[in-house]
Each structure stands twice: as C-alpha cells, then as structure tokens.
Input
Amino acid sequence: MSAVSAILVYLIIWMIVFFISLPIGINVSDELITGNANSAPVKTNLKAKFFYSILITLPLTYLVILLVKNDFIVTFINSLDI
Output
C-alpha cells in the first residue's frame, strides 16, 4: 500500500469516527433563545472530539493497512465461494 493510499484510508476512517462522535455529550439548553433552534447545543466540545478522533483513528488505520498487506481481505472474499 502506498503512502497516498494510507493517508486516504486514514482520512476516510477519521471522518467516520469524527461524525460518529459529534452527537456524544451534547447538552441542549432548556432556555429558548430567539433566533436559535430548539435543539442548539450549549457546548459542542469540537476540539476534544477532533483530537480524540485522531487518537482513535490511528490504530484503526494500522489494522486496515495490516489486513491489506497480509492479503486477509482477498483470502476472506475468495473463501466465501460466491
């Protein structure tokens, strides 16, 4: 797997992990502020979610690259007998 492919795999996994983490820990305000949606969060914690996504994505990317290099995916698909 080339470096460009590894970077693309990392970015795709990072985006999935980041978007999964967005609704976690969101507190909705009880007060209705004019001009805001009823579901507007009080604090989003985007910086923390950004960095946690980086840390979670690193081992997942390593696992995917390891599976590709060892031809595990191709062997698994060939064993399905479809």
Residues 3-79 form one domain.
